[in-house]
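seq:
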Amino acid sequence: MHPNRRRKKRPNYGIKTVEVMRGPNGFGFTISGQQPCILSCIVANSPADQAGLRAGDFLISVNGTSVSKITHDAVVSLIGNCIGPIKMTIAENYFSDSSDEELECSRMVTTRKPKYTHKPRVRKEVNRVELKNVSKQMAANVPDRVG
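struct:
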């Protein structure tokens, strides 16, 4: 999310079940993450968009099969192998971007800079011969212990 964009609460927050027909270009959504998967992009005027799905919604089940605890690849396979409409239960995200309707999915992807940049540690070159000589001198100066 863009750092200057405000977040607003959705008034219709909750869990809902929708039926989505596969269109000529697929269902019209992409998922990301796993356990649970999140709808990451909804294509405008796609079957998913017409069903009321929104980017950021959490996917709970597909055709009655709970997907909240299975891997991303298993969810993709389950959705891809469906014939006919899919019945999806989703949990709506409590927050949404204030300009969801204005953005296309390609513009929603932003890169984030890390909080702290990694700086390589400067290593001092130490003459190994000199280091060995110092350790020998220290060993010679240690008195023998007689117990």
